[in-house]
Amino acid sequence: MKEQLESIRDRALQELGHTGDLQELEKIRVNYLGKKGELTAILKQMGGLSPEERPVIGQLANQVREQIEEGIQSRADTLKQQALARQLAAETIDVTLPGKPCRRGAKHPLSIVLDEIQEIFIGMGFEIVQGPEVELDYYNFEALNLPKDHPARDTQDTFYISDNVVLRTQTSPVQIRTMEKQKPPIRIISPGRVYRSDAVDATHSPLFHQIEGLVVDKGITFADLKGTLETFIKRLYGEDSVVRFRPHHFPFTEPSAEVDVQCFNCKGQGCRLCKNEGWIEILGCGMVHPQVLRNCGIDPEEYTGFALGMGLERVVMRRYTIDDLRLFYENDVRFLQQF
Ligand code: DAH
User: Fold this and answer.
1) Which residues in the chain belong to E strands, given as ranges?
2) What is the DSSP code string of 26-69?
3) Is residue 33 within 8 Å of residue 68, measured between CB atoms?
4) What is the mean pLDDT of the chain?
5) In angstroms, rounded to a whole number, what is the distance separating the alpha carbons of residues 29 and 49?
6) 203 phi and psi, to 5 degrees?
7) Peptide bond connecting 184 to the previous residue in cis, omega within 30 degrees of 0
8) Which residues in the chain come in under a pLDDT of 50?
9) Residues with Cβ < 8 Å from 245, sequence gap 6 or more?
10) Among the atoms of ligand 1, which is closest to the Cα of residue 285?
11) Whose CA is closest to atom 12 on ligand 1?
12) What integer pLDDT is reported at residue 219 of this predicted model?
């Protein structure tokens, strides 16, 4: 029995040396130490031994079991270490490889120029206010002297949400909202999105941006309007800019004017940029109509004011000689990266 035990141990240990994975190892454990294993079978025969032999063989059997168990354990450790080493080798990261470049974002050209315009007006003591894009017909039209049957409404192809709710077609309603809330002196600009039901082409978009301006105080005159706008335009386009006021009509201002700046490309000679006119129109303006002041509870005998409205896209297109409005909204990074 002693020889049998020793042979079991020797065979088991030898087999262990050849195992390549943990499954083979488990098979060996079952074959020798399992319920139907060789060592267990021997132990079952111990009953037939003499009382003297029994403790000797028992001790040896225990030794053999321990040796096999240790053998299995140490082989398992080795196999696990080898597997880990293989995995580490396979997953090695080369930290010296160059990283994937990640593109930096940049300000949109509309934002760049809007920020600049805001800075100029803030420098002249203006505040920036916002108004809603979904607007009551009353604020977008009625209170600005554009009653329901007014022909000028047709020139602003309006998106109606209901009979008296529209997507604002201009930023001028913010004038009314401001005057309703705030007592003069008022000095605000209000930039924002406006909507008109226009088909998309190089110069039209159903969504674009305007910047509204409004000043109301005692003794405001057309001279204040001219001075403010000339200062603004010279800061925006350069000190040598030449500015021209042209009579015009807007329902909410009286008198009204359109303001042109002499084409900085051809200095008034006429070129492609100014469509051979020598001048480029940049905004509409005028003295706030007395009825508009009255609509907001401001006494036109006591207060006067001026207002202005300009399209942001046009200013930016001129600034960077961009000839297609659609580029602003497509957000092609190759376009945006240039600013
Ligand atoms: N709201 C006008 C438009 O969309 C622009 C405008 C003209 C605004 C004259 C004004 C103004 O405040 O005084 O065409």
Assistant:
1) 127-128, 134-136, 160-162, 165-167, 186-195, 207-217, 243-250, 253-262, 279-288, 304-311
2) HHHHHHHHSTTSHHHHHHHGGGGS-TTHHHHHHHHHHHHHHHHH
3) yes
4) 91
5) 26
6) -120, 5
7) no
8) none
9) 226, 257, 258, 259
10) 13
11) 308
12) 97
| pLDDT score for 39 | 82
Residue 256 Cα to ligand 1 midpoint, Å, equals 9
Closest CA to 202 of 323, 66, 51, 57: 323
For residue 125, what pLDDT is reported? Answer: 97
φ/ψ of 7, rounded to 5, equals -65, -40
CA angle 13, 37, 45 (to 5 degrees): 110
Ligand 1 atom 13 nearest Cα: 285
Is the distance from CB of 229 to CB of 285 less than 8 angstroms?
yes
Query: Residue 82 has which token pair?
Result: 């080898």
The torsion angles phi and psi of 179, rounded to 5 degrees, stand at: -70, -30
pTM: 0.72
Q: CA-CA distance, 117 to 51, in Å (whole number)?
A: 109
Distance from Cα 310 to the centre of ligand 1, integer Å:
7
Q: What is the model's pLDDT at position 227?
A: 96
Tokens for 273, please give them.
């940029």
**Tokens standing for residue 137:** 């017909």
How many helices (H) and strands (E) are present in the chain, helices listed first?
12, 10
Count other Cβ atoms within 10 Å, centred on residue 115. 12
Report how far ligand 1's centroid is from the alpha carbon of 339 (Å).
29
Q: What is the pLDDT of residue 47?
A: 81
How far CA 215 is from CA of 126, 134, 191, in Å, comes to 9, 24, 15
User: Tokens 């978009």 correspond to what residue?
Assistant: 205
Q: Which residue matches tokens 């003295």?
A: 287
Which amino acids bring their CB within 6 angstroms of ligand 1? 170, 172, 212, 250, 253, 284-286, 307-309
229-239: per-residue pLDDT in tens? 999 999 998 89
